[in-house]
Amino acid sequence: MPVKSVNLMSLMERFHSEEACREVLAELRWPDGVKCPRCQGDKHAYDSGRFVWDCYSCGYQFSAMAGTIFHDTKLPLSKWFVAVLLMVEAKKGISANQMKRTIGVSYKTAWYLCHRIRAAMKDAAAPLLSGIVEVDETYVGGKVRGKGRGYRDNKTIVLGAIERGGGVRLKVEKRNDRKTLHAFIKAVVDDGAVAIHTDEWEAYKGIADANTRHETVNHKAEEWVRADVHTNTVEGVWSLFKRSIVGSYHQLSEKHMDAYLDEMAFRFNNRSNPYLFRDTLIHLVRAQVLPYSELTAAG
């Protein structure tokens, strides 16, 4: 499916039918030929009326959506495809309310649909960051009446690391102490990175080693850039994320914050990918089932 630079009109023209959508999902899931999910057999009969294969080896009946994020969906795949396109093209994200209005579904369906797509966007195999890496933390949460700007008990801490000219990694944490920050950096930054740039926060001290310099800028002293040392790139990510909250989502629960961060990181890291729509569909057919009960369970 070499679909490049998909727009809404071309999407509707090509994937207007359930059959066309299922065909492309099968092609993306099994590029080397359809295989039974249960026994990996490649001998089967296809029922075009029900869109299912009947495996000759084990007798299992399956579709291209079996065992994936699409499992048991009652929503037409054409609406799924439009939802995927809207989410990958919306730089600041799209709310469930906007999705509801755009594709004509209930709020519950739109909310569940968006979260299933976000779940598939999580990139557990993302490579470690290298070169010059900027690291910073931010606080996400609204104002509390009667409390000053420094009040943070109602806020969620988000850690971020970004490779200059490369990818970003984002994570929700409970605190921004030395142990937490050093563990985050170790998990996302390659040991051979050239340098790590941070602000003056004491907890970052000690992250340098023989391969990697640690450079800081002192924001308290109004120092924002010193030669090529700055954290402007990661701060730009915070600005984009907070604009998405104000302009699109309006408010986010801490329970689902990681899912929204995964979505943003996936879109940011694929900002130059001309096959982003296709690659997102690949993530969807490889992702596991996400029950509604799991999303709504108490955190």
Core attributes:
single chain, 299 residues, alpha/beta, Nucleotidyltransferase, domain 5, 2 domains, 5-stranded mixed β-sheet, 3-stranded antiparallel β-sheet, 38% helix, elongated
How would you describe what is shown here?
With 299 residues, the chain is an alpha/beta fold. The protein folds into two domains: 8-124 and 273-296, no CATH class; 132-269, Ribonuclease H-like superfamily/Ribonuclease H (Nucleotidyltransferase, domain 5), CATH 3.30.420. 38% of the residues lie in helices and 14% in strands. The chain has ten helices and eight strands. Strands 6-5-4-7-8 form a five-stranded mixed sheet, sandwiched between helices. The chain has a three-stranded antiparallel sheet with strand order 1-2-3, with no helix packed on it. Strand 1 (44-47) and strand 2 (52-55) form a beta hairpin. Helix 3 packs across helix 9. The chain starts with 7 loop residues before the first helix and ends with a helix. The model is unreliable at 144-148 (pLDDT under 50).
Entry summary:
By secondary structure, the protein is α/β, with parallel strands linked by helices. The chain is built from 10 helices and 8 strands. The strands form 2 sheets. Strands 6-5-4-7-8 form a 5-stranded mixed beta sheet, with helices on both faces. A 3-stranded antiparallel beta sheet has the order 1-2-3, with no helix packed on it.
